[in-house]
Amino acid sequence: DTEVTQTPKHLVMGMTNKKSLKCEQHMGHRAMYWYKQKAKKPPELMFVYSYEKLSINESVPSRFSPECPNSSLLNLHLHALQPEDSALYLCASRADREEGYTFGSGTRLTVV
Amino acid sequence: DAKTTQPPSMDCAEGRAANLPCNHSTISGNEYVYWYRQIHSQGPQYIIHGLKNNETNEMASLIITEDRKSSTLILPHATLRDTAVYYCIVRVFERQGGKLIFGQGTELSVKP
Fold first, then answer.
1. Chain A residues with CB inside 8 Å of B105's CB?
2. Which of A33, A52, B77, B78 is the most exposed place for a label (fewest CB within 10 A)?
3. Which of A56, A99, A100 sits opposite B97 (nearest CB)?
4. Measured between alpha carbons, how far is A64 from B78 in angstroms, rounded to an integer?
5. In angstroms, rounded to a whole number, what is the distance separating the alpha carbons of residues A23 and A104?
6. Is some CB atom of chain B closer than 8 A to the CB atom of A106?
7. Which neighbouring-strand residues pair with A64?
């Protein structure tokens, strides 16, 4: 299995809702990432997990809460989002060497 | 991470070589050059990376100048399916997660 799987592919949520995005990989990669991408812009790094511990938080608002329950799974919990948080949320993973990152196809989030 | 500069857009005729330039004049000795591409609304796809030497794989070739201040990604026979945004990134290899920071990229249009 050489893929990063993200679910759901599309999500519409209200500003008072709580939802979660899921990311899964079975490549044995020990670093996992969340990125946010607005339309016509490059992906922006949000969080980095290394060996299941949060190693980098790029000053992301607390309404985004990451979780890494095990080495294969990464979640992003969403609460009280704003319409401007609507974006493509990308997950990536990387093996513990200088090779490339593997990205999932993303979750298209719309906040209404 | 060192900053990269890429032209915002380029055109290429189908079947011809596409040569995508990237300037990274502040690159340090231990920073790698990575290339990714992103086809509309999909996750970024790893293409190739290198440190000092030129590299080639089944997708592309990477030419890095001797002073390492610039590089060129070469798609030898561009097809319509190569139409995408191409990102040149420099990053330090780190065991513990590390960051992959995207620049603005080059939007490549392959035309019939």
1. 42
2. B77
3. A56
4. 40
5. 8
6. yes
7. A78
The pair of three-digit structure tokens given for residue B51, joined into one six-digit string: 């440190």
Q: Tell the burial category of A70 from Cβ atoms under 10 Å away from its Cβ (0-12, 13-18, 19+).
A: exposed
Nearest to B100 by CA among B108, B109, B91: B91
User: Could you report the per-residue pLDDT of B81-92, keeping only the tens digit for each?
Assistant: 999 999 999 886
Q: Is the Cβ pair A106, B43 closer than 8 Å?
A: yes
Distance of CA B107 to the CA centre of its chain: 11
C-alpha span between B103 and A77 (Å, rounded) = 27
Element (H, E) at A45: strand A44-50
> Cα dist. A18→A6, A21, A74, A83, B18 in Å?
18, 10, 17, 14, 45
A108 close contact with B: CB closer than 8 A: yes
- At B2, is the pLDDT very low, low, confident or very high (cuts 50, 70, 90)? low
CB B52 within 8 A of CB B11: no
The whole-angstrom distance between residue B81's C-alpha and the CA centroid of its chain comes to 16
pLDDT at residue B29, as a whole number: 83
Minimum distance, in Å, between the CA of residue B108 and any CA atom of chain A: 14
Q: Which DSSP state fits A20?
A: E
